[in-house]
Amino acid sequence: MTLFQNKWSFLSLNVALSLILFAFISPVYDLKSYINSLFYVSYFYLFFGLIMFVIKGKFIDGITYSFRRTSNRLSKNADYLDDWESKPMPSEVVSPSVMKMFFFQGSVLTVGMLLLLGYFYQM
């Protein structure tokens, strides 16, 4: 867990991951292929950061509450130990620090990718 606390060492790990992805997947070793592998890694982080942002914004809580209530009322074998109202909502489960970490990693990798794209098109 200490790796997740230091965002710069985790960023270097993500750059290394994009280099490994570049080494194994790219058909030609050029700057364009590295930019593509950096795109895959950075938008993975941005995608999951946006999903966490939507969940943290309580968008899914109403739907979850409705499904829990409906399944409790329609179930034929009621479990009296299962208290559906006291279960945490999805917005309570998402940690803001993890969401910020995903956004930071994705945005810094995207800025690096855009800088490399600018360099690529200047050549």
From TrEMBL:
Domain (DUF3899): residue spans on this chain: 35-117
Keyword Transmembrane appears in the UniProt entry: yes
Residues passing through the membrane, by range: 6-25, 37-55, 102-121
Keyword set, alphabetical order: Membrane, Transmembrane, Transmembrane helix
InterPro entries hit by this protein: DUF3899 (IPR025007)
Entry protein name: DUF3899 domain-containing protein
